[in-house]
Here is the input.
Amino acid sequence: MKKDVRSFAAGMSALMMLAAAGGSYVVAPGDTLSQIAEEHGTTAAALAEANGIANPNQIYIGQELVIPGSDTYLVQPGDTLESIAGKTGTTVAVLAEANGITDPHLLYVGTQLRLTEPEHTFEPVTGPAPTYVVQPGDTLSEIAARYETTVSNLVELNRIADPDLVRAGASLITDAPGWLCPVEGAAFFNDWGFPRSGGRFHEGNDLFAPAGTPVVAPVGGLLSQVAGSIGGYQFDLEGDDGHLYVGSHLDAFGEDGSVQAGDVIGYVGDSGNARGARPHLHFEIHPDGEHPVNPYPTLAEACGTG
Ligand SMILES: [Zn+2]
Here is the structure.
């Protein structure tokens, strides 16, 4: 077992070695305890304590360290969800749920899996907006009352210019639509947790589509446009549903400020560190604005399975 981890690690890039197997780490040349601690979000003192290390300056290449409180696992060749559950003391169901795994036979080596379900959960409502066909004699306030909403809400949802001029036979949206696919027709798969440069892990899914494909707001909310060297042209959407949505590598921005579900907020591209790569929208969901969760189950439901 130990031997497998080491021979595997020896053949991997420095990046992969830094991440090591979940719950443990095999010391590589040049490592220091404080640097290993930093990579794993812990302290040198905690590592020393957990491994009975008297002198923090004395660690050995090939030494296997227990990482206290580790809540991730790096998928190794030959792993199955069952074997990972056994090794890490959890269950297949928890692993599948925590990592958005819809097909337990589809595991990718090098993926960083979460061992516990995230603190903040995300369960969007999907589906089309409910509608009502205006009958002769209807008024907006009657319709609003019937659907337990407000006239101003109906006006906004339907972009009604004059509330006194609503024709019989018109189809009115009575509530916001369910969660919308940000890039209709995009190709994607469950690439959450894939290794990225600088020891980072992929904290979203990539939605691949031709450059210039419109990106729409999955929910209404407040949109901010951001530009950075990694994300390129990026948006932060503070959803009316209380969750934060982040998208990056846009070619161009669309609407900003207050947006409704379905508004075009940008266009797929390759800006930032995706320059020259296959154009895609890197997309993240941060429930309650906190740490991101795997958007795959949500995207699969709203967009189809890519
Ligand atoms: Zn990405």
User: Anything to note?
Assistant: The longest helix spans residues 2-10. The domain at 2-114 is CATH 3.10.350.10 (Membrane-bound Lytic Murein Transglycosylase D; Chain A). The chain has three domains: 2-114, 131-173, 197-298. The longest strand covers residues 244-253.
